[in-house]
Amino acid sequence: MATKTLGIGIVGTGWVAGAHVDNFRQIDGCPIVAVSSRKKQRARAFIQEKNLTDVAAYARFADLLEHDGLDIVVICTPHPNHPAETIAAARAGKHVVIEKPAALNRRDLLKMVAEVKKARVKTSVCFELRWIGLFKNIKAMVSQGLIGNVYHAECSYYHGIGPWYGQYGWNIKKRMAGDAILTAGCHALDGVIWLVGSKVVEVSAFSNTSPKNPLKYEYDANSVAILKFKNGAIGKVATSIECRQPYLFPVLLQGDKGTIWNDRIST
């Protein structure tokens, strides 16, 4: 049976957009057909840098949505742009891949959900940790009951993001990034919810910034959230984007038959 071709449009030209291009190249029948940026020259430069052929460059997102042969829109723009771009893509009948976070507030998120459902298009938010080997293995072990019923789970995101980081300039602003969980720790939050496999019914959280932090974040750079799940399990999600250490993403799951700690299992 012939594979259906799905044309891909990339919105934004930052490093994460390049990662999406590299991944779609590994999927048969998913050619990149269009790229948009606020400056058309930047879109053209991105196309050339990624050695793409037969790809149209646009300066206006609305023009990209009208591109013939476009089926899927990949949104790689700053956080505040995601709601309006998702809604516009859905109304144009395009499926949407959205970089995290999907939105910076519940109101915008509910609008996005309503428009997507109305248009009957498919969406995916980029929580790529679900597809790395460690998470796939942990999920498989939990699903097979190797540690029994999970009663306590933790995932944390520790990544000191300073001026060296390409997105630091806009990421320190609250109106652009939201907060530490939305801009970074949402990976850990999604991870713990996915691994436990139950809805969160109660949340309590605290946040702070170290007293002598020099990074000038407009929001607290550290947070801890305590979760209660519908199935009775409890959990914790910690985030720090001002820490002085290598990137770490520790995972802990405790069940009534055993424990998983990162790549170690005890039963």
Q: What letter string, H or E per element, gives the SSE order?
A: EHEHEHEHEHEHEHHHEEEEEE
Mean pLDDT: 95
Give the termini separation.
46 Å
Spatial strand arrangement across the major sheet: 8-9-10-7-11-12-13
Helix content: 25-40%
**Strand residue percentage:** 25-35%
Summarize the structure.
This protein is an alpha/beta fold and 267 residues long.
Essential attributes:
9 helices; 267 residues; alpha/beta; 7-stranded mixed sheet
What's the structural blueprint in terms of helices and strands?
Blueprint lengths: L7 E4 L3 H10 L7 E5 L3 H10 L6 E3 L2 H5 L6 E4 L6 H10 L3 E4 L7 H14 L3 E3 L7 H11 L6 E9 L9 H4 L2 H4 L2 H17 L3 E9 L13 E8 L4 E7 L10 E5 L2 E4 L2 E3 L1
Parallel strand pairs: 1-2, 1-4, 2-3, 4-5, 5-6, 7-10
Antiparallel strand pairs: 7-11, 8-9, 9-10, 11-12, 12-13
Structural overview:
The chain is an alpha/beta fold. The chain is built from 9 helices and 13 strands.
